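Form P-L/3: holo structure prediction, ligand adenosine-5'-diphosphate.
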Amino acid sequence: MSKAHIVVIGNEKGGTGKSTVSMHVIVSLLGMGLRVGSIDIDARQATLTRYIQNRQARKDFAQLGLQVPDHVAVPPTTDPAADEARLLETMERMSATHDVVVMDTPGSDHYLSRLGHSFADTLVTPLNDSLVDLDVLARVDPLTMKIIRPSHYAEMVWETKKTRAMRGEKAVVDWIVLRNRLAHLDARNKQSMEKLLADLSKRIGFRVVPGLGERVIYRSMFLEGLTLLDLRHKIPGFELNMSHVAARQELRALVEAIGLGKMAEAG
Ligand SMILES: Nc1ncnc2c1ncn2[C@@H]1O[C@H](COP(=O)(O)OP(=O)(O)O)[C@@H](O)[C@H]1O
Ligand SMILES: [Mg+2]
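OUTPUT (holo model):
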């Protein structure tokens, strides 16, 4: 069905950075000259929708030429079948007119989220760098620190391949796990996470990319609708510093891992 490349940002847990990562990936892809559509199916929080609205609302930024994606929110109603039909129709429409569609999803198991995941050519799962968050992907034996079995979310991702196959699409999903909020002073936890994720990636078929550090700046740009990429402009209160430069490099590594550079060059 899809002509556009579909990037779904998903994790069944809330507060892992899905909406923050969505916004940063969107603005990065726009900066590469790609036609980017975005879909928010997290109606309860609607963080991405509000982030984009905040960006549009800042008329005083107009001279900076900040790019915004074509954005659609698909909130659920009381009629699941109608909601699914609406999401399918939105995907078809956006897909036909854009190079990439980025979808932000809720931090819960929900029928729209499951359907949303089934469109992913690339699935990016941000994961706080903690064993608590890892539990969403797999049960870990606390004594041996070995993986017992994949968890519900991993099974759900697996199930979506069947949904794709039923629609006559390729069943492959490039699943990227992104460690988020990496702390400087946490060597022991970092090591356990690294080892467990390496084991798990082989078992359930994802790749791990270099993560994003814990940085205050991510929390302070939402109301202005800004991203790290916009800080190359001189914006009062958002002066670029070394931490931001490092953060931008981390973000660039993620966008390179998604790998749409060739598409951008061709366009
Ligand atoms: N790398 C980071 N460093 C610092 N704060 C972050 C980082 N990533 C996300 N946050 C903050 O964590 C909170 C949850 O992020 P959000 O993107 O809303 O997660 P989700 O969409 O998964 O619920 C927000 O306050 C956001 O600003
Ligand atoms: Mg969110």
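COMMENT: The longest helix spans residues 80-97.
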